[in-house]
Amino acid sequence: MDDGRRRCGWEVGAPRMTAYHDTEWGTPVHDDARLFEMLVLGGAQAGLSWSTILNKRAGYRAAFQGFDPERVAAFGPDDVARLLADPGIVRNRQKVNAAVHNARALLEVRREHGSFDAFLWGFVDGRPVVAGRRSVADIPDRTALSDTVSRALVARGFKFAGSVICYAFLQTVGVVNDHTVDCFRYAELTGAAAR
Fold first, then answer.
1. Can you give the CATH number for the domain in which 161 is found?
2. 39 burial type by CB count under 10 A (0-12 exposed, 13-18 middle, 19+ buried)
3. Rounded CA gap, 105 and 114, in Å?
4. Which helix (H) or strand (E) holds 57?
């Protein structure tokens, strides 16, 4: 998309990727259902491209009942079989089982912390980490923060929550703002003028 705005550069080529970059990536999320959605989609992406997952997002939302963690936590063997037959999602047994398992783990975190949002944002005292990256090449695939969050999730029983998946999740939900400093979204999200 050539609308005169500078972007990070990784989203080039697909309108859905550009829209995701422009409206979601790096934007702080404080809704447990949206956080759960991005956690499930991040796990589903393992070994695949993010564009593949975005293309299946509507299918995921339907199959996982709007990513309501309470509803997904109640899924049983018949629901898993239904999901594994659904062409609208990635039909991988480990990933489907992990999504159901993670819904249950999320509910445990919610009981302990009041919300998954409070638990997640507690790692950064409620304020996004603004990295100030100069180029896409400067963006790591994991950090000390993602290592810490990953360990905490895995200790609570979450699956597909390794540090690399966790870092992508933190970027997606705005815990980390990795927009490059010349990207228009960096300025929008930080309130600073793009450099």
1. 1.10.340.30
2. buried
3. 13
4. helix 57-63
